[in-house]
Amino acid sequence: MKKVLSVILFSSSMAIAQVKPSDDNTKSDIRYNLNESGSHYVKVTFTNQAWFRFNDNNPGTTVLSDPKSSTFDIGLRRTRIQLFGQITDRIFFYTQYGMNNFNKTSAFPSYNTTGTPSQRKVAAFFHDAVGEYEVQRKGTNFIRFGGGLTIVNGLSRFSQPSIGTIMTMDVPVFAQATVDQTDQFSRKLSVYSRGQIGKFNYRVGLADPFPIETNGATPPTLNQNSVFSQRKNHKQFEALFIYNIFDTEDNTTPGYMTGTYLGKRKVLNIEAGIISQKNATWRKEAVDTLYGNMTLWSVAAYMDMPVNKVKGTAVSAYLGYFDTNYGKGYLRYNGIMNPATGTSQPIAGVSRTQGNAYPMFGTGSVVYAQAGYKLKDGLLGSQGTLMPYASLQHADYERLRDGMNVFNLGVNWLIKGNNGKMTLNYENRPVYRNSTVANELDKYARRGSWTLQYQISI
């Protein structure tokens, strides 16, 4: 009888907690309060992003050795569970478990085309496991110190995005500069401090990057172009500084900066960030091995605010400049949840150019912009409203003879804010080939892809 009563009381407390709305995302919290006021609690969230995509593949693309000029694939872009909470007034913990980029070919990467056995059941892993201690708080001001496996870093807000609140269908992945090279899906083992002092928000940290040899792929061969080094590894310094002109942002979890507040806050920020690491890359020049320092920095402005509070209309926009110095000649192709496994038309000096890949990362500079407009609440009656958007990534990388432009156009169907939404997105990207100039690439065509995403977030 006592066990039954305990279950009833626990279920009742959970049900009461669930109707408490979140400040930013119109969510109902799944939480268990540890004290009467609810200031101490444990909370659970879940997010799943399913993709249904048609892609015009890059020339020469093969899927499991079969030539494919186009593909239709179904996949899970992200599936995540978060468990976090405020244990005492000063102690906070955060964990996240899940998987990314899970489709038919995800367990059969491009370097495994010989029939070697693969395992599709090993995709999920801990993304974050971090503890924080708050040394000071006064009103909305606070100073915290933390450590563990975390996405807290410098460079930009999109280097540590809240994936459940993305305005565009996906984040600008180039801003997650070392993703799955010397980090674990953008997370690193780090110690850091973050805080809010008046209108000023900061985060500074020291990370211990993972060896490139442990990322699950064969390390790039040492050649004339910079690649991440396998020797003389150093710690990584990072910092991000933000000035909040109007409202301050949600600072509950470490990292994870909101994509759009859907008009719930009036936010206008100016930011500057940096990531720096000594001897991060190496290259070969004649018989000498030369090491290069990685220095990445950015400046940006972010706006997200209501236009008409009565109607519920809102605008969101971002404009940023990124200086990306990985070392001489660094260039890396990447295709998000790539539907292909190989190519019959390889490009000298780069790898994995099949499917939907393009030169996403490189030494040079990037300008990134995005803008969206949330239409009035109830536009579709009880089925929510719409939020169209557009984005542009313009990159000038050393080894590209022509500037690279990647366009995205899309619309969000906000059925229940960010808790339940569908996104239809069209992406248009450039295709490159070897240039007549040694070690450079020429742009000669473009390809596109259509993706429908269905997001559930609790």
UniProtKB/TrEMBL annotation:
Signal peptide: 1-17
Signal in keyword set: yes
UniProt entry keywords in alphabetical sequence: Signal
Name the record gives this protein: Porin
Species, as recorded: Dyadobacter pollutisoli
